[in-house]
Amino acid sequence: MARIVVIGSGMGAMASAARLAVAGHRVAVYERAATYGGALGRFERDGFVFDTGPGLLHLPAVYRDLFVKTGKEPLEQCVALTPVDPASRHLFDDGTDVSLPNASRARVASALDTALGAGAGERWGDFLNRARDAWDRTRRPLLEEPLQPDWQVLGRDPYPSVRRRRVLRRDRQAATVREIGAWELAEPRLAALLDSYALAYGLDPRTAPAAAAVLPYMEQTFGSWYVRGGMRELARALYERCLARKVEFTFGAEVAAVTEKDGRAAGVELADGTVVAADTGGLRRRPPRPRRDDAGTRGVGTGRRGAGARAPGPVHGVPRAARRPPGRHGPPDGGPLPRRRRGGVRGVPR
Questions:
Q1: Which spans in the chain are helix H?
Q2: Exposure class string for 181-198: b at 16+ Cβ within 10 A, else e
């Protein structure tokens, strides 16, 4: 039985801690903030509570698997999940208004045909079929297996871009979300719709890799779910699961450095100078993003690996919300950018 230190208490870190504890290890979590949950924060005022991070859950199966494998109580006994329908509403600059149903690609296609014109639903559906291929290629290495030392499985962008043949010029394939919208969807409002999914996750459509096409695929295939009481309740449930598995938490403890011995992680040094010994350590670190080099080919950046072993968490590689990039991110031809309204209740009474 090893003593393992986990740096941070976000959802990925707590999921790793719970799985390691179930495997028989003694796990200690050090968090610089005053509480757990990472991006799943909460603001309280006048008897109401508000999520300060994501408002909806889009891949509940990952958490269902986590709770089944770390305790007796399944996810639905720890939090109440309610499907949100419609999942989102999109308002375009030209006055077009479309509400997208939850977890029904057929109904989404029908709604797009009604709002944007015949053929829009089929074009969007063809795009989602390609996005499904990217999902199938990345699901296991990103969500179900520990990240491997060799990154060959992530060495190419998994999205199967449509090859556009051009006379006397090189064939053209989309490598970014923006290019998918311009070249494959080829309808300004559909392109703006795709952009809105990238923006919702803090990505710039102009630079986000084509693999980000899995974001609308996941939402429209697996649905949008509201956690009763807000997403913070999901963080609370996972925190309590960790406590039940005897995971130790220390808050207000910023890790300044990972200590090493004989080339291996040997513990952590806190900002106050305290040294905590461990057999190994883990921290939540994203895999490098697929990129496009100067020659136009797509590959994976290098990036440093975290020290020590790492157990699979619930959301490997899912980007955190980041500050929205500057400028107006509509389609390349200056078409309308939708104002996206998510379903669900943002403020709930205590």
A1: 11-22, 60-70, 75-78, 105-116, 120-139, 177-179, 188-200, 214-222, 232-244
A2: bbbbbebbbbbbbbbbbb
Q: What is the pLDDT of residues 245-276, one digit of tens each?
A: 999 999 999 999 999 988 888 999 999 999 99
Residue position matching structure tokens 């109440």: 80
Q: What is the dihedral of CA 272, 278, 280, 286, to 10 degrees?
A: -30
DSSP labels for 41-67? -EEEETTEEEESS--SBS-HHHHHHHH
Does pTM surpass 0.90?
no
188 preceded by cis ω (within 30°)?
no
- CA 106, 111, 113, 119 torsion: positive or negative? negative
Name the DSSP class of 209: B
Query: What is the C-alpha separation between 44 and 67, in angstroms, rounded?
Result: 28
Mean pLDDT of 216-244: 96
DSSP 3-state of 163: coil
The sign of the dihedral angle between the CA atoms of 71, 34, 8, 41 is positive
User: Cβ distance 202 to 321 under 8 Å?
Assistant: yes
* DSSP character at residue 205: T
Please give the single-letter amino acid code of residue 346: R
Q: Which amino acid is at 158?
A: P
Helices 105-116, 214-222: axis angle to 10 degrees equals: 110
- pLDDT by residue (tens digit) across 99-141? 999 999 999 999 999 999 999 999 999 999 999 999 998 888 8
Tell me if 91 sits within 8 A of 97, measured CB to CB. yes
